[in-house]
C-alpha cells in the first residue's frame, strides 16, 4: 500500500480542548508548508486534521516533533475512517484495512479520553489478541517494523486506522501514562510532577537529571506532593508556602519550609531545580519564571501555567514567546517544552532548562 493513502492526522487531546488542539496542528502544519483543515466534535477528545494536499499526513507526523505539540496527547496518520465494522467480523474488517500498511512493530487499540469512549476499552481488550494474530498472518506486524499501528475506536462499529512513528509519538496508549498514586504522597498533585517528568525527561536520564543531594525549590509547595517527588529522588528542598507542609515530609530532614511569598522568594544560592504549582495569573507566573532564568537561580524548572479564558492556544504561545525573548535579551540560552498533561485541567505544564 502506498503511503499516500494516509490523508488525515488523528490527534487525541483533553476533552474540551479540541479548539486548541486544532489551532495548534493547523499552525504547525502551515509552518512546514502543509495547509489543511480540522474536523472535531465538541468534547470528543479527538481532532482530525486533513491536509489539502492528499497523502501528506504521514510526512507531517514524521516532520513535526511530537514533543513540541502542547495540546495533543497522541497522534497518528490515518486512512479514511472505517465506519461499517460488522459486529461479527470486526477483526477481519480491521485487519483488511491495515493489512497492506508498511510493516508495523506493534498494534495499539485506543479510545479517546471521555466517559463514552472509555466504555469501549473492553472491546479493545477483546480484539487485541485476535487482531494481532490476523495481522501477523498477513505479515503486517513484525518486530522489525518501522511504524506503530493504531486503531482508535469511536464506537462499536467505527474506528480510525493508521500509523505513527515510534519515538515521535506518545509512548503510552492514548497518550496517558498510567501512574499510581503513592500511598505516602501528601497530595494527588504529586502525580502531576511525576507525569511531567515522564513527558519531559528521557527514561534513562532520571538519575542524572534528578541528582540525589542537589537542591530544589518548590514554590507553592503545601502540603508537599511535588516536594515529596523531589525528596524521593534524594534532593533537598526549600519548600515555599505560607500553608503547612505534611509532617512526614518534614521528618525526612530533606526539607526546609520557608513561609514566604513565592513571588518574592530569592534562593540563597543557585539550585538545580525550581518547581512551581502556584495557581496565579499566567502572565504573572511566566514573569516569575523569566526572573528565575534571567538570574540563573535554577538550571531546570517544571511549572504550571493556568490557561486564560479566551484564545487559549494563542495566549500560551504569546507567553512562551515572551519567556524566550526575555532570556534572549539577557543572553540566557534556554530550551522549553510544554504539554497539557493528563493530570492538568485548565492548565498546561511547562519545563524549561538552562542550556549553558
Ligand atoms: C495547588 S497547591 C500546591 C500543591 C502542591 N504542589 C502539592 O503537590 O501538594 C497551590 C499552593 O500554592 C500556594 N500559594 C498560592 N500563592 C502563593 C504565593 N504567592 N506564594 C507561595 N505559595 C502560594 C497555596 O498556599 C497552595 O498551597
UniProtKB/TrEMBL annotation:
Is Cytoplasm a UniProt keyword of this protein? yes
Q: Which residues are listed for S-adenosyl-L-methionine binding in this entry?
A: 189, 222-225, 241, 261, 277
Which residues belong to any copy of the RlmM ferredoxin-like domain?
8-76
Which GO terms are recorded in the biological process aspect for this UniProt protein? methylation
Primary location recorded for the protein, binned into one broad class: cytoplasm
Entry keyword set:
Cytoplasm, Methyltransferase, rRNA processing, S-adenosyl-L-methionine, Transferase
Tell me which EC number(s) this protein carries.
2.1.1.186
Q: Where is the active site?
A: 306
- What GO terms are given for molecular function? methyltransferase activity
**Reaction(s) this enzyme catalyzes, per UniProt:** cytidine(2498) in 23S rRNA + S-adenosyl-L-methionine = 2'-O-methylcytidine(2498) in 23S rRNA + S-adenosyl-L-homocysteine + H(+)
Q: Where is the Ribosomal RNA methyltransferase FtsJ domain?
A: 187-279
Q: How does it assemble?
A: Monomer.
Query: What PANTHER family would the database entry show?
Result: RIBOSOMAL RNA LARGE SUBUNIT METHYLTRANSFERASE M (PTHR37524), RIBOSOMAL RNA METHYLTRANSFERASE FTSJ DOMAIN-CONTAINING PROTEIN (PTHR37524:SF2)
Family membership noted in the UniProt record = Belongs to the class I-like SAM-binding methyltransferase superfamily. RNA methyltransferase RlmE family. RlmM subfamily.
Summarizing the function annotation, the protein's role is: Catalyzes the 2'-O-methylation at nucleotide C2498 in 23S rRNA.
HAMAP family assigned to the protein according to its UniProt record, in alphabetical order: 23SrRNA_methyltr_M (MF_01551)
Name of the protein in its database record: Ribosomal RNA large subunit methyltransferase M
Look up and give the organism this protein is from.
Answer: Sinobacterium norvegicum
